[in-house]
Specification:
The chain is an alpha+beta fold. 23% of the residues lie in helices and 34% in strands. Residues 255-274, 281-304 are annotated as: Disordered.
Length: 614
Amino acid sequence: MKQQRSRSSAVPRACLTVALAIAVHAAAAPATAAEVPWHRGNFQYVVENKDLKDVLRDFASSQGVMTWISPEVSGTVSGKFATPPQKFLDTLASSYGFVWYYDGTVLRVWGGNEVTSATLTLSAATTDQVKSALERMSVADRRFPIRYDDKARTLLISGPPGYVETVSAVVRSVDHSSALHDGTEMRVFPLHYARAADRTVQMDGQSVQIPGMVTLLRGMYTHAAQSSSGLPFSTGLIERALANKERLRSLEESINNRTRSDPGDGASGVGLPNNWFGLGGAQAPVRPPLPSGGPAADTTAAPAPAGADYGVGAGAGAGAAARSAEQGAGGSSDLPFIQADPRVNAVVIRDRPERMAGYAALIQQLDSRPQLLQIDATIIEVQDGALRDLGVDWRLHNRHLDLQNGDAKGAALGYRAPGANPGLGDSADGLTPGGGMLTAVLGDAGRFLMTRVSALEQSNRAKIVSTPKVATLDNVEAIMDQRQRFFVRVAGYQSADLYGLSAGVSLRVLPTVIPDSEAKQIRLDVHIEDGQLTSKTVDQIPVISSSQINTEAFVNDGESLLIAGYESNDDENNVTGVPGLSKVPVLGRLFQHRSKQRSSVQRLFLLTPHVVSP
């Protein structure tokens, strides 16, 4: 009985303690931690002298919650309970001094003597970032408050071991992510064959930018393909043409927009050549000096200032940094910084460390050794009617020759020779090219053709105008110019200016070695501009008769590509007479001598590529 009284007297004391504990814990209930999925209704339980760990297991089992109980939890429970589940757990915790924490999956219980603490120092993240992450993940529990020191970037965590470990893991993860986000690394990639900086070349008196490795990388990683110098790329010919049009507007006004043409030879004859604006004639589409393979050039970005720090900065424009933020993966809004060092031909990159391996692999693939080629060009002028004397039937198709000649009225031949150039037509529905326009792959017959041309030179029926040779790299354009340049003074509204005009032959060849080809095939992209000064003038400005040829062909190493240009007709009328008497009306004709000369010349271009180094 004493035991009962003792037990009964102990029960009221326990009930008082439980009531106080319930009041305290009701005010300190967790708000941000994961809530335990208790069953609705009261938990009814009757127990007599049962181990506390067994009671907790029965309780968790009835609620369908997995539990883990530390060996340090001890005690004996007796009583009759009919309370909500949360209230029952809090009552036992306050009565027996254990602590619990639910991590969203398992209800973990520790003894009161196992409460621990940990101090963490942040290296990259801020305390606000840690608070936000803990709240979003429902990890923080107000029963175990975390103390923050914003100035020292330090956290003090106290609570059960599982809680301290969970919070510490989240804090370390946030701090590590911030370190990857903000931490940068700078690395220098020296180049052996490619150019790091952009290269400027002169084309038609204009500065054209050939993009280098840095511009290529910026276009891929920051979507900004503008060069550091602000000059247009070779792929932006349309923009350059529009700029030239505006610049020459006063020149067009000075000649009153008067143009003259010479029909019959397919060429145009005006005060300014059609190709001056970079657009060509209506039937002569412009061909960029280099094939465009990348993003369009952004010509609005400001040029990079001299001595600027390594990085995109002003060199790629203000929009480049904003666009780089869209590349995802948590990238910083101002990364990557990519800059060229022309002094040592190296690429300097500042970016996150985990991206450097990708840069290194890409640069190694792009920095490959190009093959060296030699382009032999021969410009030949043949008198009209002497083409047959070259010993070649222009309507003939054989193993080495596949070409046609005509007046654009007859039907083209439908026969295709084995191994013929795939760019030539083989349909019987087509027409032969007009004006002697033809393209042929001669192969070994090129030597025979040059022998016949040398023979015609002896009778002044043919002439080798020029034989330029130039060495170039694979996929690098070779330019051979032979032009006359003069300047025209044009009066403006407040000042006068000089504009340069040129006439002559411009030959641009872009060779590309076909990889893994048995016969070392070479693709030739050819652009020929042929302009001549005529005796006609417009406002005392000489008229330039110009023509363009754009073609592509596949030839083997050492074979020749023959291109026949437009036929050039020159009509010359001369009047001579006795001074004074030749001016007498009617009778003056008796003292005059009139002569009329007409000459017709076919201009041929023979191109022979050679692979010098493999």
